[in-house]
Amino acid sequence: MLLLGNEAIARGAIEAGIGVATCYPGTPSSEIPDTFFTLYQEAGFYFEYSTNEKVALEVASGAAISGVRSMCTMKHVGMNVASDALMTLAYLGVNAGMVVINADDPSLFSSQNEQDNRYYARLSALPMMEPTTAQEMKDMTVAAFDVSEKLKLPVILRTTTRLNHLRGSVTFGKRRPITSKGSFKKDPFHYVAIPAVSRNLHKILAEKYDQSLQLSEKSEYNRMTGTGKCGIVTNGVSMNYVQDAINDLGISDKVTLLRLGFSHPMPENLIVKFLKGVDKVLVVEELEPIMENEIRSIAQSKGIGIPIKGKGDNLFPQLFEFDPGLVRKTIASYFDVPDTSPQPVEVTDVPELPGRPPNLCAGCPHRAMYYAIKKVYGPDAIYPSDIGCYTLGVLPPLSMADIVICMGASVGSSCGIAAATDQKVVAFIGDSTFFHSGIPGLINAVHNKHKFTLVILDNGTTAMTGQQPHPGVDTEPMGVDTTQISIESVVRGVGVEHVEVVNPLQVKKAVAAAQASKDFDGISVIISKELCPLYARAIKKARKVRPFYVNQDKCTHRLDCINYLACPAMYLDDGKTMINENLCIGCAVCAQVCPENAILPLKN
Amino acid sequence: METKRIVFVGVGGQGNLLATRLLGEACLAAGIPAVVSEIHGMAQRGGIVESALVMGDATSPIVSEGEADILVGFEPLETLRALNKCNQDTVIIVNVHPLPPFTVAIGQGVYPDVDKALETIRNAVSSLIALDGDELAAKAGNPLSLNMVMVGALIGSKSIPLDGDVLKDTISKTTKQAFLDSNLKAFDFGIAAAHSPLDPSKSGIKS
After folding, report:
1. B44 neighbourhood in chain A, CB within 8 Å
2. Which pLDDT score is estimated for B80?
3. Does B206 have pLDDT greater than 60?
4. Environment class of residue A162 by beta-carbon count within 10 Å: exposed (0-12), middle (13-18) or buried (19+)?
5. Of A109, A562, A571, which has the smallest distance from its Cβ to B41's Cβ?
6. Which residue of A344, A466, A566 is in closest CB contact with B106?
7. What is the 3-state secondary structure (H, E, C) of A234-262?
8. Measured between CA atoms, how close is A376 to chain B, in angstroms?
9. What average pLDDT does this structure show over B170-176?
10. CA distances (Å), origin A28, targets A6, A115, A368, A467, B48
11. Per-residue confidence at A350, pLDDT binned at 50, 70, 90?
12. How many Cβ pairs within 8 Å bridge chains A and B?
């Protein structure tokens, strides 16, 4: 079967008999929980979209300590959120297998940074495994549960975007029966991490580290192939590029290839054996020179003086993902073999091409709220933003994002900007992000009397990552029994006095709410409430409305619609403003913005 | 077997991910090793969507600059932008129907002249197959079947070792009944278009 890498991981978890799966969705990891979501009721395990990654990890750890196999999935920056729990969970350990899926994003396809989370394995002393193919994403998931159970430690399975989003052939294995109920056995002097207990637990973790090193030495995923004098070490997706390069260059007889799939702890004895058989070594790893430095350190301790290279001039970059051509060229030049790469075409007469950045969809309620806020606060107010579709508002002509750091930071950073400047501050945060990590910032703002406006863009779903539910969503239509939490109650509950809920598609009301927030002296919150139109369509709640058109007799070409809204359904044709009726969903915001009332619904 | 590296470029909503996946499934059905690469996240937000299919013994899921054996362009501007994936032996299959990006509407750029663009492409590579995929999809009865037209054109170009029957079988297995007829029709139109492509110098398309 052709499976997406993420589907293969989900299949692996089910073959391993998981009883509990948790997550916070985030590209490129989201299809793992989404696959669980479609399967868990039938398969008979417990699954939840958790509030954030830290909570997700804690839920999964509670289950694994209670003897139920669990999986927790997240993107790389989610691991930052979860890491507080992870570091001490490593001390506590688990009783049933627990696998943490960590999806890194080299080249930042969909992230705010490209941190290399292999460091988390070093920081936590936990085992890490790195698959290479779709088949391995399934198989290694099963194997990771076994390793975890042997060591009584959570195991981190690290992927990168290219693995999560490749599709490859996967042969299924047998399913182990699912055990979804265990029992928590009291042992406070093991599970209560007070200093006196943790000192002992740290010793235990050190012993387990030695055991994991032994497993790594023997792991089938750490293997050496070939007997040539050219040594290559690689991991993860790069293994594919290396294999293809060796075949394309026809150098398999010259190479000894060491592939590290059980990549932390690094198998020291195997590495020494490898180093002793080769003349020079090239380490092929994306992002940080982690294997390179550790192998160099092993070589130094054993008095092995051969060249060991990876990052550097004419070698591999430390930034961004690799590709097969880069790996082939670098291997060819490092080992001095002829490279047969085809040359890209040289085209000199291509004009400068217009960009095609992603844009808020036609009819997106975020665009309408941006319009209302900008109308009242103008271009000079500071607009801290957050992580979600609405971050796309950074691009002109909207230009409605001035600072984005991480999930929830719109609120915290606004506190600082408001405290440190006399500038007006209006922060934007999505509904899912608000629950994820916006609430502590808002409590801080109320308690410490910061003065700014927080706009919560409540579109009823986690839109950017694929319409997952969050605590504010009514999940009944999905056949899931959860308690829906009102954002307004939370906001009022933490003590915000000035709160308004508006439908941003009603432009006058949205502008009035923006004005009232500006006039209020203190922290104010506007909840901009309107379903994401894609989500509305998906749950069949989209209203049937007529698309709009521009009455050319009335249009005076002020272009307010295009300049202030930048809706992708609008375009200029020979200077005339036009609406693409196939894209227009009839939100009517442009009709309310047009000073000439020239935008009208199409007649049937 | 010989490796074939195929790159697909298009715009969110044109269905190139689905087309790539379908071809991957067809490879599997035909016993040809295949790996597909997708980029998710921007597909519904009007951005560029690129995917790849690598057939044969290679295991790398992505295709480097200059290394595409075939480029299937769902849109002329994006095909032009992806020319760096091609070498002089690359076969390019292009839908000549332009979808101007929003940046053009707000005056941040000019959409290139399609005829000139096709001329540029034709001069750069050995083989160019141009077709009006949107028109053929509409003729098949469903504008959303553009991706089936493009898959048909790829099969019709005979540049990969997959025959139409395997594809039709895969399409039949994976398509909702309501769209099956139009999808199969679109696929056949694509095959026919590859056999008698548009003359790029006379596409008659205005950007």
Report:
1. 361, 534
2. 95
3. no
4. buried
5. A109
6. A566
7. ECCCHHHHHHHHHHHHCCCCCEEEEEECE
8. 23
9. 93
10. 9, 14, 29, 14, 17
11. confident
12. 179
A467 → chain B, closest CA residue: B41
Whether A478 contacts A471, CB under 8 Å: no
- Substitution target from A31, A244, A345, A564 for chain B, most B beta carbons within 10 A: A345
Amino acid B75: pLDDT: 97
Q: H or E stretch including A63?
A: helix A53-65
Domain ranges of chain B: 4-199
Q: Domains, chain A, ranges and CATH? A: 2-218 (3.40.50.970), 222-334 (3.40.50.920), 365-472+484-538 (3.40.50.970), 548-601 (3.30.70.20)
Q: Which of A169, A358, A563 sits opposite B46 (nearest CB)?
A: A358
Closest to B66 measured CA to CA, from A355, A323, A107: A323
Integer-rounded Cα radius of gyration of chain A: 27
CB contact under 8 A, B64 and A568: no
pLDDT of residue A484 exceeding 70, the answer is yes
Q: How confident is the model at residue B204 (pLDDT cuts 50, 70, 90)?
A: very low
Q: Give the C-alpha separation, B34 to A156, whole Å.
A: 28
State both tokens at A6: 């993420």
The strand pairing partners of A573, in sequence order, are A576
* Residues A450, A524: Cα–Cα separation, whole Å: 10
How confident is the model at residue B44, as a pLDDT? 60
Task: Measure the CA–CA gap between A406 and A34, rounded to whole angstroms.
Answer: 23
Interface subset of B 47-76, CB within 8 angstroms of A:
47-48, 57-67
Inform me whether the pLDDT recorded for A196 exceeds 80: yes
- The tokens for A14 are 């089910």
pLDDT band at A487 (very low <50, low <70, confident <90, very high): very high
Decide: B111 and A354 in contact? Cβ < 8 Å.
Answer: yes
Percent of chain A with pLDDT over 90: 93
* Residue B203 confidence (pLDDT) above 60: no
pLDDT in tens, A101-112: 999 999 999 999
| Domain topology for B4-199 | Pyruvate-ferredoxin Oxidoreductase; domain 3 (3.40.920)
pLDDT surpassing 80 at residue A445: yes
Of all helices (H) and strands (E), which one includes residue A528? Answer: strand A524-529
Q: What is the mean pLDDT of residues A511-516?
A: 98
Which of A2, A4, A32 has the highest number of chain B CBs within 10 A, making it the mutation to test binding with B? A2
Distance to chain B for A537, nearest Cα, Å: 13
Nearest to B111 among A341, A354, A466 (CB): A354
- Nearest-by-CA chain A residue for B77: A353
Contact of A366 with A459, CB cutoff 8 Å: yes
The pLDDT of residue B207 is 42
Instruction: List pLDDT tens digits, range A296-338.
Output: 999 999 999 999 999 998 999 999 999 999 999 999 999 999 9
